[in-house]
Amino acid sequence: MYTFLKRLIDIVGSIVLGLIFLPISILVAAAITLDSPGPVFADTPQRVGKNGKPFKLFKFRSMIVNAHIKLRTDPKLKKLYQEYKRNSYKLREDPRVTMVGRFIRKHSLDEIPQFLNVLKGDMSLVGPRPYYADELVEQQRKYPHTKELVKIVLSARPGITGWWQVSGRSEVNFDKRIKLDADYVLKRSLFLDIYILLKSPWAMISGRGAV
Fold first, then answer.
1. Domain count, the chain
2. pLDDT tens by residue, 131-162
3. What is the per-residue pLDDT across 191-208, written as a single tens digit (0 to 9) for each?
4. For residue 211, is it within any domain?
5. What is the residue range of 49's domain?
6. pTM (2 d.p.)
7. What string of DSSP letters covers 86-150?
8. 161, 126 in Cβ contact below 8 A?
9. Which of the chain's termini has less CB crowding within 10 Å, N or C?
10. CB under 8 Å to 111, separation ≥6 — which residues?
């Protein structure tokens, strides 16, 4: 019953929220186009979904074109890439982020297109963070005790929002974050999902912990 109701909420919720955010999406797309050359949507690598299935995650572009490839291959960004891996695939100061990108990332506006992922069934409104494949490999090597937690997390659809985002602990390292994600998967319920959804707007407006 939970699985059916969750999927129903995902479909209805993503349609309704997508329509509500449509005017903002148009403004964001226009701002991205005026701010820097390149497509409106990000050209990011695939993420790891439920049962380890890779999928294309839709996001508004908040960085320069080919930002992910450049970080991993440009010799000038070698130190930045090392810092990126040390800090659990997050950077506080990232020179690849555009002026508009900095604002939309802070307030999670870059994630609005993920409603399309929810409609496709790749994601849920609420769930664990959608991780990169290389991120999971690298971080499990760094934190070997997280391997079982990763298995638990990958048994569920990743979400647009989740427990760690609204708990005030979104800046923690991978080992703490994957523990929060696994705790959600083990305890998930409609009550918990609704609680997270109700708390998400404040996390979005405040920009607390956003990178």
1. 1
2. 999 899 999 999 999 999 999 999 999 999 99
3. 999 999 999 888 776 655
4. no
5. 2-206
6. 0.87
7. HTTS--SS-TTB-HHHHHHHHTTGGGTTHHHHHHHTS-EEE-S---BHHHHHHHHHHSGGGHHHH
8. yes
9. N
10. 59, 60, 160
